[in-house]
Amino acid sequence: MADGVDKDSKTEAPTQRRFSEAAEKGNVPFSREVTVFASTLAIYIYLLFYLPAGVAHLWETLRDLFEKPDQWRFENGQDIVALFVRLGWESSALVAPAFVLMAMFGVAASIMQNLPTPVLERISPKLSRLSIPAGFNRIFGLPGYVEFGKSLFKVVVVGTVITFSLKSEFISSLDAMYADPTFLLGRLTSDVKVILIIIIFATATIGIADYFWTHHQWFTELKMTKEEVKEERKQMDGDPIMKQRQRSFARDLARKRMMAAVPRATMVIANPTHFAVALRYVREEDAAPVVVAKGADLIALKIRAIAEEHGIPVFEDKPLARSMFAQVSVDSVIPPVFYKAVAELIQRIYASKSKPRRAS
Question: How far is it, in rounded angstroms, from Cα 333 to Cα 326?
């Protein structure tokens, strides 16, 4: 994207080449809010299906420690280390699945948006990224306001909904502090589930909105000016002047090759100056006559001149020359519709060759 280009002048939709170049540079639409929603959902699944059993197992371990301390030896430092290692493994077994689920859901959310592609350009250091004006625009521009709006929604709206949802249970939650620890844990788990459900719905709403906003912003940034579209089309199709020169050069080569084939022709059919078609027929080579050259106006005259120079018979037949010029391309066999007319001309050539010459 060219620097200093007025955004108002970017009125054209991005081309496929523009999309490809952006993807190669790692510039793809990505919503972080979708990843946040996936991670929150992973926490809720962990809390719903794994945490109760994990906490119960950890509670059994701690209860054995405090209710039956005689089972543990504390004679030296190694015994203390062994105890902490045991507690560490038990705590890790409780917490590790949460991190694994969050990582899996986060990676899945990223892959569903865009396949990961390593791009060295995005991680290479650039002094332009330290630009103060660019950072100011990111903070106080439209993307900065959008991020502020999302944060405000999370704090104010979500916080308000959670407050009103748990307001009726505030007193009973205080009473639960003096109850049995097992009951307190269950009550805490229930409140956390309610909070997570609210957060899941909030992050899902923000994630959907942010997904479409991110794609819209990405599409808008990739828009092109009319001049950029013309320049890209010129690069893909080639310079028109250069292409015209190439076509002219190719026509000259084809014309020279065609003229070089005229001396090998068997006959030339003319009209009489507008069209000329040179045919070659050798019974051992082709099943039917082949057009080795054809032309109109000056090229037709050139074909006739070469034919006369090499003693090749020239027959003037206006309808036949005109039809054959229009229907048969160079190096192609004539269609059956011309067999009879051409065969008569070939017979005339063979007849003229078979006539004995008069003695001088």
Answer: 14
